[in-house]
Amino acid sequence: MNKNTKPNTPLVSHIYTADPSAHVFEGKIYIYPSHDLDHDGPSNVNGDQYAMEDYHVLSLEDFNSPCIDHGEALHLKDIPWAKQQLWAPDAAYKNNTYYLFFPARDKDDIFRIGVATSSSPAGPFKAEESYIPGSFSIDPAVLVDDNEKAYCYFGGLWGGQLEKWQTGTYQHDAEGPAEDEPALGPIVAELSDDMLTFKETPQEISIVDEEGNPILAGDEERRFFEGPWVHKYNGYYYLSYSTGTAHRIAYAISENPKGPFVHKGNILNPVVGWTTHHSIVQFKENWYLFYHDCTLSDGVDHKRSVKYTEIKYNADGTIQTIDPYK
Ligand code: FUB
């Protein structure tokens, strides 16, 4: 338990946590982070240093309450199909069940997306025997829409392997598009009613500029890299994501959950550490950004800590950019 729930401060400091997906379940804020290992091994662009082996669920009664660590909710050894690297998860509630969606490398070293279930938002979660058929890459984020349709958004470049799926099958040596070609977008698939499979073939989302032109692969300030998140505000779908090499959380808006999404700007300026990853949730009247940085570890990229801060919308629906250190 950590008594410190001040904004822009690690929610917990007894373990390293990252990639927070926050939801309000049963009147409380539940946070589903990655659990970074405290190791001092080498780093590479493939992300092998992100060698996580389990998930812990955190919760807050409100922002005046301590953050509770509910302990281990799922371990790699209990996921029959997974070999390594439990990366950024998300959770959803439907059918009186809590679902944990998570990426991991399968026995062939290919990232897939799995699902596990629980009767409690805090877990423990029981993993399905196999990954979701037709799933690939990383960073699942699930939106259960007002009409109960559920959409799974996912995808990440480089170590997340999204470039390798441009033909619809895994191509080990495939690279991303040229700088003057449209960037790869995140992927979306509607989930089946039981939330355990995709109802349809996953499709790529288009992110365009205000003139309707696709954001190009060389446009590193705006192009999608990883960590998609979709929330709804005033009837519009907001897709937010990490730009990777430019280290920003950018966002784009659409009237349709599958896009195209029009790029609008940045929600979060760069944090300490290479990765940036977030979620957005409404709690009572206000909206909050959950994010991570590496200040607690003095800048070690794979030892991150989850934080939160409030976000503000302008009258036209745009979001004010946050500088995490001001
Ligand atoms: O935590 C491992 C990876 O780092 C996540 O899947 C990415 O979004 C990045 O935060």
From TrEMBL:
Record Pfam families: Glyco_hydro_43
UniProt-annotated site: Important for catalytic activity, responsible for pKa modulation of the active site Glu and correct orientation of both the proton donor and substrate, residues: D139
GO molecular function, one term: hydrolase activity, hydrolyzing O-glycosyl compounds
Active site: D40 (proton acceptor), E204 (proton donor)
Presence of keyword Hydrolase: yes
Keywords: Carbohydrate metabolism, Glycosidase, Hydrolase, Polysaccharide degradation, Xylan degradation
Listed InterPro entries: Glyco_hydro_43 (IPR006710), Glyco_hydro_beta-prop_sf (IPR023296), Glycosyl_Hydrlase_43_Enz (IPR052176)
Record flagged with keyword Hydrolase: yes
CDD domains on file: GH43_CoXyl43_like (cd18619)
Any one Gene Ontology BP term: xylan catabolic process
Family assignment from sequence similarity: Belongs to the glycosyl hydrolase 43 family.
Protein's name according to its UniProt entry: Alpha-N-arabinofuranosidase
Lineage summary: Bacteria, Bacillati, Bacillota, Bacilli, Bacillales
